[in-house]
Specification:
With 128 residues, this protein is mainly α. The chain has a single domain, classed as Orthogonal Bundle (Arc Repressor Mutant, subunit A). The protein has a two-stranded antiparallel ribbon.
C-alpha cells in the first residue's frame, strides 16, 4: 500500500505522462493538493520533493513548482516525439535550471557592484 505522498506523486507523474500537464505548466499548489487528497502539508511537500528528485518537476523561487522540460539529450531518447517515451527532467533540465538561476544571480551581482561603485565614487567626491 502506498503512502499518501507516494499516491500524490504518482498521480502527478501520471498527469505529466498523459500530457494533461505539459512541460512548463505550473503544478497544483500545496493548498490545492492538500484539499484534493485530504493530505497534510508535509505529505504534499514530500510528494513535490520526490517529483523534483525524479526530474519531473522544478522549482522557481517565488513562483512555484513547474513540470520539467523533457531531457532531449538523455540516453535512450528515441527522438520520436512520443510523449510517453520522452524522459522528463534529468541532468540536462537540471543544468538548464541551474544555468538560469546562475545568470539571474550574476545579473544581480553586476547591478549591485555598479551601485557600490557609484556610491564609492559619490563618497570620494564629497571629500570623505
Amino acid at each position: 500500500m502506498l503512502l499518501t505522498f507516494e499516491v500524490i506523486a504518482e498521480a502527478l507523474r501520471e498527469r505529466i505522462r498523459s500530457g494533461e500537464l505539459k512541460p512548463g505548466d505550473a503544478l497544483p499548489t500545496q493548498a490545492v493538493l492538500m484539499a484534493e487528497y485530504g493530505a497534510s502539508s508535509l505529505s504534499v511537500q514530500k510528494a513535490m520533493a520526490l517529483l523534483k528528485q525524479d526530474g519531473y518537476a522544478i522549482s522557481r523561487p517565488g513562483k512555484g513548482a513547474f513540470v520539467a522540460h523533457p531531457d532531449s539529450d538523455a540516453e535512450g531518447d528515441s527522438g520520436d516525439g512520443e510523449a510517453g517515451n520522452t524522459p522528463v527532467g534529468g541532468t540536462a533540465a537540471r543544468v538548464k535550471a541551474l544555468e538560469l538561476a546562475l545568470a539571474e544571480t550574476l545579473d544581480q551581482l553586476t547591478a549591485l557592484r555598479a551601485r557600490v561603485e557609484a556610491l564609492e565614487a559619490g563618497g570620494t567626491e564629497r571629500g570623505c
